[in-house]
Amino acid sequence: MKLKNTLKCLKQGLALSLMVIVTALSISEAAFAHGERNQEPFLRTRTLHWYDMKYTVENDGAVAINDIVTITGKFRMFERWPSQIPEPERMYLNVNSNGSTFVKLESWVNGKPAIQSMIGELGRDYEFKIVLKARWEGRWHVHPMINVLDTGGLAGPGIWINVTGDHNDFKMAGTTLEGDVFENLSTYGMAQVYGWHIFWAVLGLFWLLYWITKPTLMPRWLMVKSGEYENTLITRTDTKVGVVMLVLVVGFVVGGGLYTTSKHPRTIPLQAGVAHINPLPVAPSIKVDVVKGNYYVPGRTVITEVVITNTTDLPIQLGEYTAANIRFIEHSVIDFDEVSQTTPAELLAQSSLKLSDNSPLNPGESRQVTIEASDAAWELERLTSLMNDPDNTLGALLFFYDSAGNRYITELFSGMVPVFDPT
Ligand SMILES: [Cu+2]
After folding, report:
1. Within 13 Å and on the Cβ side, how many CA atoms surround 373?
2. Which of 174, 243, 302, 339 has its CA 20 to 30 A from that of 52?
3. 383 located within any domain
4. Ligand 1: distance of its center to the CA of 108 in Å?
5. Any domain includes 176
């Protein structure tokens, strides 16, 4: 009776867990590609700022299996890195996509191979290049990403790529260290992989079934409790089977290892070293002092009051404001149509960045101005959740241009006080 009840309980528990998993899966489907939106605003605006992004395929464009896609761009490691997360003492250039839909052929940072992790310096810029090969058909959202040790993945601006064809046609040929030529790394050595998995699964299943077919937990516990378990709890056959299993498992682990080493005597282990890559040289920038910052809730507008001082030799104007991969363009300074051709619409504010005065600022002059960055993207990208954060701050990059077309990048860091009432 007791055993029956326990089994019933287990079955009910199992059914409930399955229901929870199925429900969770069906709910999360809509948010599949945009996990990046779930990150806290202080994480997304005060860690990495990506700019000068170029993809060799346009947003929502198509490539075929085996086609090459290159992503290039730059990122700034924000000086005012949030103190809640570890600093980028180790970081790794990666790609964020829906699984291994692409193969990363090359990755470069500042012209050096970025196969290994590297050290990141705050307040500095890095230039990167990633070369990908399409592997699996489908519509994928692909981001460049920096993985920071103990912090996690910080995704850059992503684009949709439609991969056409059949993954069975994917090819990635090469030669091993010993001169073995293989046609496809995706399937190289798969016979051994399947073979070993099946072997251990069968052995494991046999071991499980051997014990499960006997009276399980409760009857055995009762035997122990009553003290009547002599030769019944563990029989002589049990001992024999156990010894055979022990010999088999140890034999196959040691034997398998020895066989593989003799067959492939020259192997290189996965490398754990750190790549030494210096950041880009420090470029001159414009001085910006923040007076105050507000988020105007009904208008979905970030309003920052700043004092700009032109520290260069030519008149300057603000051309762009970017935060959390969203670009706000000053239409009178930058050609908006040109920008919209290379930037996904969801990451580009459609209306112009507004300044209380954006007439050219002469060298040596200072001016107090209000910068208004207004777009539904603040809401859509869930950046408005900053109002609920204990760290109510926002980081951004400001792009100034002088009359000769030179660009100056300045970090903007501000507290954000929400304003609900327009008056
Ligand atoms: Cu995405």
Report:
1. 30
2. 302
3. yes
4. 22
5. no
pLDDT (tens digit, 9 = 90+) per residue, 163-204?
999 999 999 999 988 888 988 888 888 999 999 999 999 999
Distance, CA 8 to ligand 1 centroid (Å)?
43
CA distance 79 to 400: 18
Total structural domains within the chain: 3
Stated length of the chain: 423
**Rounded mean pLDDT of 342-363?**
92
Q: 307 near 355, Cβ under 8 Å?
A: no
Tell me which residue of 211, 215, 212 sits closest to 224, measured CA to CA. 215
419 φψ region: left (φ > 0), alpha (ψ -120 to 50), beta (else)? beta
To which residue do tokens 């504010």 refer?
Answer: 349
Q: Structural domain of residue 233, as residue ranges?
A: 190-263
Please list all protein residues whose beta carbon sits less than 5 angstroms from ligand 1, which is an ion.
Answer: 33-34, 141, 158
Q: What phi and psi, each to the nearest 5 degrees, are found at residue 103?
A: -110, 130
The token pair at 64 is 């075929």
Last residue within a domain, chosen from 138, 171, 204: 171
Query: In terms of domains, do 240 and 305 share one?
Result: no
Sign of the C-alpha dihedral computed for residues 48, 49, 51 and 56 taken in this order? positive
Query: Strand order in 366-374's β-sheet?
Result: 354-355, 366-374, 301-309, 287-296, 417-419
Q: How far is the CA of 355 from the centre of ligand 1 (A)?
A: 31
Read off the pLDDT band of 320 (50, 70, 90): very high
Confidence of residue 1 (pLDDT cuts 50, 70, 90): very low
Q: How far is the CA of 35 from the centre of ligand 1 (A)?
A: 6
Identity at 250, one-letter amino acid code:
V
* Gap from CA of 83 to ligand 1 centroid (Å): 26
Q: Pairing between strand 393-402 and 407-415?
A: antiparallel
Give distance in angstroms: CA of 100 to centre of ligand 1.
Answer: 14
